[in-house]
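EI: anyone free to look at a 140-residue chain?
SC: sure, send it
EI:
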Amino acid sequence: MRGTPLVEWGLFILCWSMLLFPLTRLTARQAIPAPAAAHAESLATTAWVELQFSSLPGTFQLHEGNACIWSGTADTHRVSSLVTVRVDNARAEVRLFVDWEAQGGMKAVECVLEPDGLARQSHTGWTEARRLEEIMVFSW
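SC: here you go
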């Protein structure tokens, strides 16, 4: 003997309602807190800079922003110095200007930057002209 359709539908709805409550709790949208605004950490630090030239340059200049942080002439193919650079969010950007007296041929400059407490990074600039103007971005 079968039960009445009204009782069967009532039991059916009751079973699904009991399943629906935990499912809505599991799949409900929860407010995800917005991440805290990352403050720009800017740190002026001492860094070891080494320049290695494929051919001897006339002059070179290393700029950070509008300020020249190192300039000179090279008597050898490798020069190095301590400079102060600004590291913003584990990133430093310098501009390198190199002038050669000899024309022709491919020339290269490797710039190695090692700020205090950070790993050594290097970038190489290439040119066939008498002047190299290169923006070098170092990221850690």
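EI: The domain at 43-139 is CATH 2.60.60 (Lipoxygenase-1).
SC: 👍
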